From TrEMBL:
Pfam families: NAGPA. Residues 81-232 form the Phosphodiester glycosidase domain. It comes from the Bacteria. This is Phosphodiester glycosidase domain-containing protein. InterPro entries: NAGPA.
Length: 251
């Protein structure tokens, strides 16, 4: 009997370790900001997540308006009307205003597609966000968007395959996803995780807010940014004061 009790205690512990410590920080009819303290056998991190109802909030790409302009900060974009802003990843090392490839804002192409670059596009048409594989056909479909990545999950399955030493490293992350309830999920981690750990967790978790069918990485290693407008507070995470080339904003 004691063996059985210990066995079920172990199973319960394993379940708790999968995704624990959910806290609602701010709740709005159109979006919810949550904190997850995640402890699994493979990694530990703190995840700040916004779950967005895409029927109620419209997406828009903010950032550079000219190739060599100053870009925008996530805090600035929130102060001028956005409810949620996610940024990061659309930078070259140490030069946050140099695009890593395709960038289109307000229908104007600021930077061309970079062949052999990131394999995803965060695109917007009519206020709706889409996560697309990077191609000439994809960029022709979007009114606004930018090249980013890598893709971690597509069709509910992990598609990321580590291909270099850097792709195995753990960093803080910014990701954008579509969950299995067709809501938009934007998130940053404040403790380092690898891309494969992030992909495996978001595709396999039992948490219905986090379980995702499409996941695109936006940042790793310092440029991750999340800013959320509350009632009387602006919640900020990551590099929220840095000018960036491209930000995904929701209004």
């Amino acid at each position: 009997m004691r063996t059985i009790v210990l066995f079920f205690a172990f199973l319960s512990l394993g379940f708790i370790l999968q995704d624990s410590g959910e806290t609602v920080i701010f709740k709005h009819p159109d979006y919810v900001l949550k904190k997850y303290v995640i402890r699994t056998r493979e990694f530990s991190t703190t995840l700040f997540v916004v779950i967005i109802e895409p029927k109620h909030l419209k997406a828009k790409i903010q950032g550079l308006t000219q190739r060599h302009s100053n870009g925008r900060t996530a805090v600035e974009v929130v102060r001028t009307g956005a409810k949620v802003v996610l940024g990061g990843g659309f930078v070259s090392s140490f030069y946050p205003l140099i695009p890593n490839g395709f960038l289109k804002i307000d229908g104007a192409t600021i930077s061309a597609l970079r062949a052999g670059g990131y394999n995803g596009v965060a695109g917007v048409n009519g206020g709706k966000l889409s996560l697309l594989r990077c191609s000439n056909e994809s960029i022709d479909k979007v009114y606004e968007g930018f090249q980013t990545g890598p893709f971690l999950v597509q069709g509910g399955s992990v598609v990321f395959r580590p291909s270099s030493e850097a792709s195995y490293r753990a960093y803080n992350r910014a990701i954008v996803a579509i969950n299995t309830n067709n809501k938009v999920v934007v998130a940053v981690t404040t403790e380092p995780v690898t891309l494969l750990q992030m992909a495996t967790f978001l595709s396999g978790t039992s948490n219905t807010d986090l379980k995702s069918k499409e996941v695109l990485n936006l940042a790793g290693g310092g440029s991750e940014t999340l800013v959320v407008k509350g009632n009387n507070t602006v919640y900020t995470y990551g590099s929220f004061q840095d000018n960036q080339s491209a930000l995904i904003a929701f209004y």
